[in-house]
Amino acid sequence: MKRSIIIFAFLLVCVLLVTADGQVSAQEISGAKIFNDNCRVCHQNGGNIINPSMPLRGSLKLATVDTFLSFIRDPRMPDGSEGSWKGGSV
Predict the structure, then answer these.
(1) In this structure, what CATH number is given to the domain that contains residue 75?
(2) Which domain holds residue 55?
(3) Along the 90 residues of the chain, how does pLDDT read in single tens digits?
(4) Which of 31, 43, 83, 88 could cross-link to 75 by cystine, CB 3.0-4.6 Å?
(5) pTM (2 d.p.)
(6) H helix intervals, the chain
(7) What angle do CA 42, 50, 81 make, to 5 degrees?
(8) Does the CA dihedral 36-41-43-44 come out positive or negative?
C-alpha cells in the first residue's frame, strides 16, 4: 500500500510538471508581444544597448510581479526622470 501511494504521488508530480511546462497562457503570449513590439530592440537577451550599466537581467525592478508592474506603469530612471517607455495600462 505504501509503495502504491509513493508511485501515485511520483506520477502525479510528473504529470503536473509536464502540464505546467507544456502550456503557455494567453497572458504570457500577450506579454511577449508587448516586449517584442516595444522593448526587444534595446533590451536583447536582457541587456540594455542604450545604457549597458542598466540591464534588465538582474534588475530589482523585475524581482517580483508587483515591482515590475509598478515600474512599467510609471517608469522612472534612477535619477527620477522618465524612462523611454511612457507607461501604459498594464
Answers:
(1) 1.10.760.10
(2) 26-83
(3) 444 444 444 444 444 444 455 677 888 888 888 888 888 898 888 899 988 988 989 988 888 989 888 888 888 888 888 876 665 555
(4) 83
(5) 0.55
(6) 2-22, 26-38, 65-73
(7) 105
(8) positive
In one-letter notation, the amino acid at residue 70 is S
* Number of domains observed in the structure of the chain: 1
Separation between Cα atoms, residue 83 and residue 39, nearest integer Å:
12
- How does DSSP classify residue 46? G
Record the cell numbers describing residue 16, joined without a space.
503536473
Is the alpha carbon torsion for 24, 26, 28, 34 positive or negative? positive
90: which 3 cell numbers? 498594464
- Find cell 527620477 and name the residue: 80
CB 75 within 8 A of CB 85: yes
